[in-house]
Amino acid sequence: MSAILDAGWDTGVFLLDNIARIDAQGVHILDRRVYPFDKTWVTCPDVPSVATAIIDMVTQSGGTATAAAYGMVLAADHAGRHAQPRDELQRLARILRETRPTNDSVKTVVENSLEICARWEPEQWPGALVESVSTREKQRLALTWQIAEHGATLLPDGVRLLTHCWAETGLTQMVLAATRAGRTVQVFCDETRPYLQGSRLTADALRDAGAAVTVVPDVAAGYLLSEGAVDLVVTGSDRVAADGSVVNKAGTLALALTSKRYGVPFYSLCPRVDRDTPTAAGVPIELRDGEEALHCLGRRTATENVAGFYPAFDRTPADLVTGLITPTGVKAPHEL
């Protein structure tokens, strides 16, 4: 077991300092493309390089917001020495805001940072934003523990859970709460091509949380569901619309459809609801470079002279969602 089981969670990809750090050289971002095989850092000396790291998947999911928050510290430091500091801050903020269009956490962090800067003079911006990053991280962990405690009620002793991609801190805390209560939890992790977040990040974290973890190819999930080998499916959510429809990693929709067919409950972790978006149909889906579908872990996995197509996310309608695991309880979509 790693120290993930300790209160501090000082290993893994959970603690703030293991997501991103900042010092005089810039923002250092843990490279999730190679974790846990290698623990390496990508150093970003300025805002454009932070934006590039986010776009290039150096970090993803909740890590993008943390990287963007530190990127705004760099933006504030640079803009504070500019002839037109507030205009320059807005320009740099746009660079970060436009990195990942589907998950709106980066946009939210950037807007919050701008609101903080509006209350201070330029020379005070960096200090105020660094403090806000620490505060935000404490609030995030408290929120995800609330989600986890409600989610753990769905995990009786001997439960068999299927998950997809990297459902962030909430799922690991959820499993940890169950195993700490003495319950055994078996988890099937989809490998989640092309970056293999499921077989690397999720499997590593859930193993350390005390679960018995089995990695399966993405194409095997339907077999498990059809054979009655899964009691429930739990995924993360990159965005939840007002009607309870879910936008998440591509492949989530297929899991929800198959779960519905075989009567397996389908849940998504839901830190917040986007009240400004009525349904998931209003959420833009990021189409990444098709070349990414032709490679895996730095090696080409497709024959030459073929095209690739890679929508990074998909939309799951609310009628396929059994429940959303929120900070205030497990709720049906119509109860949000």
Folded structure, characterized:
- This protein is of the alpha/beta class and 336 residues long.
- The protein has two domains: 3-142, Four Helix Bundle (Hemerythrin (Met), subunit A), CATH 1.20.120.420; 153-335, 3-Layer(aba) Sandwich (Rossmann fold), CATH 3.40.50.
- The chain is 37% helix and 18% strand.
- The chain contains nine helices and 17 strands.
- It has helices at 47-55, 62-79, 85-97, 105-118, 125-152, 168-180, 197-208, 221-226, 252-261, and strands at 20-23, 26-30, 41-44, 159-163, 185-190, 212-216, 232-235, 239-240, 246-249, 266-269, 287-288, 295-296, 299-300, 310-311, 313-316, 323-326, 329-331.
- The protein has a seven-stranded mixed β-sheet with strand order 6-5-4-7-10-16-17.
- α1 (47-55) packs antiparallel against α2 (62-79), α2 packs antiparallel against α5 (125-152) and α5 (125-152) packs across α6.
- The protein is globular, with a radius of gyration of 20 Å.
- Residues 1-11 have low confidence and may be disordered.
How would you concisely characterize the structure shown here?
With 336 residues, this protein is an alpha/beta fold.
